[in-house]
Amino acid sequence: MKFEKVIQGHIVTPEGDFSGEIGINNGKILEVSDRKGMLHGEETVDFGEDFVFPGFIDAHVHCFSNPNEGIRKASSAAAKGGITSFLDMPYDLPVPISNVSVLEEKIAEVNEQAVVDIALWGTIPKENGAQVIDELAEAGVAGFKLSTFETDPYRFPRIEDADILEAMKKTAAHNLVIAFHAENDEMLTRYIEDAKKAGQKEAIHHNLTRPPVTETTAVVKLLDMASWSGAKLHIVHVSHARSIDYVEWFKQQGTNVTAETCYNYLLLTTEDLKKFGPKAKINPPLRLPEQVEALERKLLEGQIDFITSDHAPWQKADKTIGEYDIFKAKSGSPGLEIMVPLLFDHLVDQKGISPARFAELLALAPARRFRLVDKGSIETGKDADIVVIKRGAPWRIDENDFLSVSDVSPFHEHTVHNRIEATFVRGHLVYSHEGGINTQTAGRFIKPGEVNRDEDKQAALGGHVGTSK
Ligand SMILES: [Zn+2]
């Protein structure tokens, strides 16, 4: 057999990594060989001993929190950052994705502009919201995102408990993930008011007004409701190890739950919040150094299912406004372009996790959880989504050079020791270090596929969703 394309390098599969090659036809992986020179291609690309990973998947991106960003810029940033699929959040400005007509418009925009593949989250309106779930599920959303904290009453509202329970039951019927921003609205609203009255507006007060209990009380409530409703629950951006303890306990009781943390919570602490101020303002806030260590232990022990960026493409003005009053700055930071190289340095090079586990945390596990059945690993039959990482190729992050519209990052001027050499989406080269972004868009809208429900649930209960044991 002759392949359209053969990619050679040090290949990372769920079973391990080896020097070999991948045969690709029509955007699909048709063969994986653990020796080079076995497969014949019209085109053969040899990456030497560079790592050839499955395309990474970021389940937590906000393209339209800042409308200056949009699909084209965010997906270009993703391609450069080694992310071949992402799931875009529904809290779009000006209109959230809570009905089929706005969803269909967004799908059309993705198919027109995307450089990488994109799945879409839906959400529900503040009042009696669960009624929109059936039609959005039929239209192909990858899951539903709700919040227990009111970021914005229309676009990003707090949902009341009775509506949450109803939404949990409905999403469970579709075997779709229901994910939550879990912070205790009552507590932190009061703490912020108190701090403002007392004139406590320095950066550290962002942390002090959102102590860990504001996260853990919200997480416990959601876990309990998921155990009663049978929901397929996912907790986004966990910042504290105690939340993971609760997730583990409920998993042991048979509750179908997963949890993610974000790269910021593993790499930054309250020291960075003090140092960088508004640039390091994210929700939930950065935690104390010892709390970050405890969270990292959970990750290394296999208790965190996957890692996301929570990419929020703010620009300088969104942050400088909070220079003398942290509460005025926007929350969030960009991540699509830098998360994978930063985490590769930290987790693989410094902490010694295996390339296969790295691929599980950033590709296989999110693909499984969101039923992206063609994605997540280098295996026969999957999409040829491939990312090449060159080790020992240092570069400096420059926030003014992002392909995202965002130009503020606490990692500005940080040196990274590996780089993304090439990114392929379904066999198309969408980015290379030499040539930059390929301007022919190759990305498209993707949606959940068919899976066996029992196996799907067992994957979540087995410690982390990447392993099918
Ligand atoms: Zn988010």
Automatic annotation (TrEMBL):
GO MF terms held by the record: allantoinase activity
InterPro entries assigned: Amidohydro-rel (IPR006680), DHOase/Allantoinase_Hydrolase (IPR050138), Metal-dep_hydrolase_composite (IPR011059), Metal_Hydrolase (IPR032466)
SUPFAM superfamilies: Composite domain of metallo-dependent hydrolases (SSF51338), Metallo-dependent hydrolases (SSF51556)
Family annotation (Pfam families): Amidohydro_1 (PF01979)
Cellular component aspect of the GO annotation: cytoplasm
GO biological process: purine nucleobase catabolic process
Residues in Amidohydrolase-related domain copies: 51-430
Protein name stated in the entry: Amidohydrolase-related domain-containing protein
Annotated organism of origin: Planococcus plakortidis
